[in-house]
């Protein structure tokens, strides 16, 4: 029975888009469980090592969680009843019922621990090589190769002398799954062996002979000549062999690798969106590893010809008409090592800056702008900071203004398309990059950060922290608090630092939930009392208070009204607030993203009596300016949302005495005659409600007639 059970424990057969075998493997585990209860230890002694190894392999490497748990339970039963499994208690502690529930943890962590016991190391490696690297599921193949990497230090000689020679022919075989797994396995094992050789101060030749090196080159030739290989496999192979420091310097194979990476980046538009991000990151990692190992000479400098060709090629592709190609080469520039950027920094920054600019032709290229902003921060971190240095070599006094201008431009990207607020990706990347560049400067040459730049950064972050989308509000809040509470050393020139530290105590930096509107808005509205932040917070609040999301609207509006109540008796605070409010409106006339929710917010504020102190003065400048701005905003507009929002504002303005009432009534009469039926009807309804609320504005003798006309007419 035992030979049959050992086969059944690994039985897996693909049929169509799924596989059969998990029920067979589960049943085999049950038989092993029954063995422990049915036989004396003496009877099972000849099979102990076989059964123990097979159960360990199933518990750690099976694709299905129920089979891994069944194998773990069978192993536990044998340890408890038989007591003859080698290192049984130790293994059970690491691979219990709950631990084997996570497949990645099983492959990459638990397997390494168990392989520390010599009885199990070789069977586990053999199973991965013979069964798992050619598995029908690509995820299992990739996990298996990573597991082989981690297991290599447990049996380095076996890997070098037995496993690698066995894998090399498989990597150029006929079966696609086997080739994929074998190539990745060769790459991972090679990398692990080279790291081991370096740690032990041994030559690479200790583990690799001429046949092995030729076999690795043959894999490269197979990859170049066969279009069936996926880009991820190609780039992983290049990265691992480069990190392994294989002796290929000056070999034509390096040119072939560079061509493959470039081809991958140019092919991104052809790749499905689900796989595109992984392949892009893999290609960029491969390029970085390749450059660091093979493009640097003994003096630590780049070959001028290679540097010129590589940088020029990457920068030229930044203006490609395909967005994904721009993305790929932007990230590639961000991954270049310092010796390749030296002397070419300005060329790289200028190229990336052009990608971040919005033009009619590429307005929808939000992902390219995002990746360019990420790349700028990476480049700055790579080249370092030197205040009086050359702008061609490092971040310095001559180029820091340009860098910040580009990054700050990204914070204002509100592009939308069929996917929604795609500009949010750009804003998120811009905020992260601003933080990284600022902290880089603070820790090296803080004097390069002037007060104006710091004010802009903190104000824009405050605005983003007050906006309606939870994800971006949370990211902005996190960056804002990171800069505020950074103290190695502190970020200079932060406006109102003491007040901010009182509103956002250091103890709450990690616990404040910016995603929750009920927690975020009561804090952020307190910044309205700080002159430097007032305009920007109001700009963000306008979109939230006038938005459509019920939770965000409720808490943002309530926080705003609470603040307004506190300043009602403070003339200077009210004047400052109203001035900023009108400035926000004036700066965003005809900008529907802001103006429509702003009109909705003004309607709510007027209805809640936020400006009652101004209703005792005839023709108060605030009401006059607000009326003129509203009138200008809806001039010749056919946007129903905007017109509906403006009706409430005009009705609210009726509470201001003087000539204002006549102007407001005239504007409402015009809306009663609007070409759109829905606008006529809504105007009549709101004017009716307005007259009930403010009955003193109409002569009592004609009030009934007016109300009858408004209510009975089929508007």
TrEMBL record:
Cellular component terms per the entry's GO annotation: lateral plasma membrane
GO terms for biological process, alphabetical: adherens junction assembly; bicellular tight junction assembly; microtubule cytoskeleton organization; post-chaperonin tubulin folding pathway; tubulin complex assembly
Residue ranges constituting the Tubulin-folding cofactor D C-terminal domain according to the UniProt record: 455-642
One Gene Ontology molecular-function label: GTPase activator activity
InterPro entries membership: ARM-like, ARM-type_fold, ARM_TBCD_2nd, TBCD, TBCD_C
Top-level taxonomic group: Eukaryota
Keywords: Chaperone
Residue ranges constituting the Tubulin-folding cofactor D ARM repeats domain according to the UniProt record: 1-89
Gene3D superfamilies: Leucine-rich Repeat Variant
SUPFAM superfamilies the record matches: ARM repeat (SSF48371)
Identification of the protein by name: Tubulin-specific chaperone D
Organism of derivation: Ceuthmochares aereus
Gene giving rise to this polypeptide: Tbcd
